[in-house]
Amino acid sequence: MLNNVKTFSVTNIIVFVTIITYFLQNSIPNGSIILGLNVYFLEYGFYWQPLTTIFTHGGVFHIAMNMFILFQFGNLAEQAFGVKKYLLIYFVGGVLTSLASFFFMQSMGMMHNLVGASGAISVIIGLIALRDRYQRQGMIVWILLISFAPLLLGMPVAWYAHLIGFGFGWLIGYFI
């Protein structure tokens, strides 16, 4: 029903801020390195990176895909859990996913720059998968597809961030 369509939501604000940040990251010198998550996090004390990496992206297709998925699942989660819980889940889950992904990268000798909201979005997907048994199988297939299909096509993707985020979302679901 059109009466139930919510045009103003925290999710929509996050989408807007992410798009603005993408333009900012591309307008300042080394914006992707400063705002993404990389070795500067530890070496130079760029302690904001586990949060700002959620707002940075590797290209127009990357941000468009992530924001489309966030718009869909974020609004669903926001309605289901309320604004306060949703914000806590998205940002705390996203930062934890960023940190766990960073330390996974470090342990595997990966030295690239981690960017994108897909880890935080995967937290939401993991939570929905735990809570909604009717969507669970589809969510699991979806997370596996977005994690590994791009690799088969030769595209760089932080598959581990997707899986870590999904796992955090599933785990968080037991506590909320």
Number of helices: 9
Number of strands: 0
Helical content (DSSP H or I, runs of 4+): over 70%
| Unreliable sequence segments | none
Helix/sheet category: mainly alpha
| Gross geometry | globular
CATH topology: Rhomboid-like fold
Order of helices and strands: HHHHHHHHH
Strand content: under 5%
What does this 3D model show about the protein?
The protein has 176 residues and is mostly helical. It has one domain (2-173): Rhomboid-like fold (Up-down Bundle), CATH 1.20.1540. 72% of the residues lie in helices and 0% in strands. It has 9 helices and no strands. α1 runs antiparallel to α5 (60-81), α6 (83-107) packs across α7 (118-131) and α7 (118-131) runs antiparallel to α8 (133-152). The model has no long low-confidence stretch (mean pLDDT 94).
Features:
176 residues; Rhomboid-like fold; 72% helix
What would you say about this model in short?
By secondary structure, the chain is mostly helical.
Give me the secondary-structure topology:
Layout lengths: L9 H18 L3 H5 L4 H4 L5 H4 L7 H22 L1 H25 L10 H14 L1 H20 L6 H15 L3
Helix pairs in contact: 1-5, 5-6, 5-7, 6-7, 6-9, 7-8, 7-9, 8-9
